């Protein structure tokens, strides 16, 4: 077998760090090198590649087209090496960062994460609840929980929970019109985020239209957790994922007047780079959360686990 043709490891490390930080100086700080040493290593790598990897400007560097194509592959290679090394050592230690959709965080993860932490005390677990999609190439994030359809190129994904939906409201709001007896009664009340396509999907098969509600001025709340809070405050009817509001339903803060539950294929997914699938800490978290969610909420439907070839854009913000 022919030996592999590889550039110097030091040059690759300097390039990967500089590409991630967008700075030779910050790369040097991370690697314990001077800015000049980082620049030297990258020049050496560019000589071997035969093309510039960075465009150099006063106090600023940016990846060239060649650099942008090269950086993800180098990053992935280092992640695979790190994962293989950790697996060989059997190590579960260090910082473990989870970037998660806000609604899933507040309605399930924060109530259960201590169980995972107790089982893995060597890990320093850090939670980032945000609507922003984490960038694994540039951010210090181990795993993410995303709302959407997927697939996401280069990422492993596991369906945690199908984001199905049904109307919910506060008992006091329902009582204000003498109770909710038919779906048409809901249209006598304000609909929260009425332009959300979930409203049409739920009502139109019943022969009901939400057009009148669309003409009423309404603030767009976006995140499902905010819509739920407005519903509990009696501001209107919310279209929510019932599995995430079991406590609110049990305590009478919300009611679900009808059993009819719809879905458009959206879900909450655990995702992480393909090259990290065997990292001990990621494997430990994956095994724990898939089992814990299934035990508490039921396993996702088999049909929901199918992966398409093309990414479908989410029509509803599940974060």
TrEMBL record:
Gene3D superfamilies: Periplasmic binding protein-like II, Winged helix-like DNA-binding domain superfamily/Winged helix DNA-binding domain. Residues 303-319 have a biased composition (Basic and acidic residues). Keywords: DNA-binding, Transcription, Transcription regulation. InterPro entries: LysR-type_TF_proteobact-type, LysR_HTH_N, LysR_subst-bd, WH-like_DNA-bd_sf, WH_DNA-bd_sf. Residues 298-319 are annotated as: Disordered. The keyword Repeat does not apply. It comes from the Bacteria. Residues 7-64 form the HTH lysR-type domain. Belongs to the LysR transcriptional regulatory family. This is Transcriptional regulator GcvA.
């Amino acid at each position: 077998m022919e030996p592999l043709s590889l550039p110097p490891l030091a040059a690759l490390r300097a390039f990967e760090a500089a590409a991630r930080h967008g700075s030779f100086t910050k790369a040097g700080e991370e690697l314990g090198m001077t800015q000049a040493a980082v620049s030297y290593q990258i020049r050496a790598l560019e000589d071997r590649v035969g093309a510039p990897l960075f465009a150099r400007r006063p106090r600023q560097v940016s990846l060239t087209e060649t650099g942008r194509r090269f950086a993800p592959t180098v990053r992935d290679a280092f992640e695979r090496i790190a994962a293989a090394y950790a697996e060989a050592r059997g190590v579960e230690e260090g910082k473990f960062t989870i970037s998660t959709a806000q609604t899933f965080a507040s309605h399930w993860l924060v109530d259960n994460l201590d169980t995972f932490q107790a089982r893995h005390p060597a890990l320093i677990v850090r939670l980032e609840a945000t609507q922003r999609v984490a960038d694994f190439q540039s951010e210090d994030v181990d795993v993410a929980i995303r709302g959407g359809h997927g697939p996401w190129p280069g990422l492993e994904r596991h369906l945690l929970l199908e984001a199905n939906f049904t109307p919910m409201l506060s008992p006091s709001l329902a009582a204000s019109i003498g109770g909710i007896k038919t779906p048409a009664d809901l249209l006598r009340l304000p609909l929260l985020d009425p332009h959300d396509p979930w409203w049409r999907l739920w009502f139109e098969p019943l022969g009901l239209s939400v057009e009148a509600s669309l003409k009423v001025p309404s603030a767009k709340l976006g995140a499902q957790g905010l819509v739920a809070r407005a519903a509990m405050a009696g501001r209107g009817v919310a279209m929510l994922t019932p599995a995430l509001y079991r406590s609110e339903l049990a305590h009478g803060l919300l009611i679900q007047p009808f059993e009819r539950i719809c879905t458009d294929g959206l879900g909450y997914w655990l995702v992480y780079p393909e090259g990290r699938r065997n990292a001990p800490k990621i494997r430990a978290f994956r095994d724990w959360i898939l089992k814990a969610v299934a035990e508490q909420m039921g396993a996702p439907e088999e049909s929901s686990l199918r992966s398409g070839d093309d990414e479908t854009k989410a029509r509803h913000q599940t974060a």
